[in-house]
Design goal:
Alpha-Beta Plaits, 238 residues, 21% helix, Structural Genomics Hypothetical 15.5 Kd Protein In mrcA-pckA Intergenic Region, Chain A
């Protein structure tokens, strides 16, 4: 059982606030009974009617995809490139939670649960993202420290981040750096390294909101368990 306004918002019909207005104005019926109390609860199997129309409760679906490089994080690409939707089989209309660049690989969640999507992308919730970046050249620890303290990208200072230098390969002239951030600005990782004079030549997201790519190979996906979905929801309550 869940609050009626939450069920309505979860169905994608409207926002929770709008659902509250509809309930209070007597437009919502549950199993034929008019509900005007905002504390009322219902279940997903109840017949919910709004303005005389039955509410269609879409099945919620949650996919964890190991996105390969060379795939766009949109549902439809105007240039005809392969999209993340081409990699999964579903009858639901799913949307990616945030985005990874065309040339970035790694963990991407896709879902039709708008509420969870909002929770996961809202800066207030500080959702943790862990990336491994391959950097051209040999990184200097003091530069990485400076980047972690915050650098200017697109006119704003980035929040504090954590980094671990995983490899400095003198022979092949590259470095591997693991970077943990809680923001999700456009091309954030590449721009953070750029701000300290380094070029990212390869980027992979290894973790998102505590989830990992464990058990998956590039291009493959799995469904989240109910327990994992509940854990993700709990990240919004802190
Ligand atoms: N930061 C980037 O620069 N690119 C991504 O795809 C994700 C984070």
């Amino acid at each position: 059982m869940e609050r009626l306004q939450k069920i309505i918002a979860n169905s994608g019909y409207c926002s929770r606030r709008k659902a509250e207005v509809l309930i209070e104005s007597g437009k919502v019926f549950v199993n034929g009974e008019k509900i005007t109390n905002l504390g009322a609860k219902a279940s997903y199997s109840d017949q919910i009617t709004i303005n005389g129309c039955n509410l269609k409760l879409e099945n919620k679906e949650y996919i964890l995809l190991y996105k390969p490089r060379g795939v766009v994080t949109t549902t439809n690409d105007e240039k005809g490139r392969k999209t993340v939707m081409d990699l999964i089989s579903t009858t639901n209309r799913l949307y990616p939670v945030g985005r990874l660049d065309y040339d970035t690989s790694g963990l991407l969640i896709l879902t039709n649960d708008g509420e969870l999507t909002n929770l996961l992308i809202h800066p207030r919730n500080n959702i943790e993202k862990v990336y491994v970046a391959k950097i051209e050249g040999l990184v200097k620890p003091e530069f990485i420290k400076k980047m972690c303290a915050g650098v200017m990208i697109d006119g704003k200072k980035t929040a504090k981040a954590k980094a671990k230098i995983k490899k400095i390969d003198k022979k092949n002239n590259f470095s591997l750096v693991e970077l943990t951030i809680h923001e999700g600005k456009n091309h954030q990782v590449k721009k953070m390294f750029e701000a300290i004079g380094y070029k990212v030549t390869k980027l992979k997201r290894e973790k998102f909101a505590g989830l990992t790519l464990s058990g998956l190979t590039s291009g493959k996906y799995r469904h989240l368990t109910i327990k994992e979905v509940k854990t993700l929801y709990s990240l919004g309550k802190k």
